[in-house]
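Quick one: structure tokens for this chain, please?
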Amino acid sequence: MRKRAPSLKPVVLIGQHGLTDNVQQEIANALLHHELIKIRINTRDREYLKQVTAAICEFHQAELIQHIGHTIVIYKANPDK
């Protein structure tokens, strides 16, 4: 899966409003359709970045595949595929 990660474009951008319910829903939809997604988190606070990454993985029961800079790649298998 790491080999596929560089070719992905971020499908979700987390901006100044942070990790809202709407953002969580977009992540859920993206995981359902793509399984492997890239998320860009716009922040300069490294601790906040770690907290958001952990919250996303825990909430969606997804696996963190890669974390480079402000971009994370997560995976969750779709049981219907």
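The CA atoms of residues 35 and 45 lie 28 Å apart.
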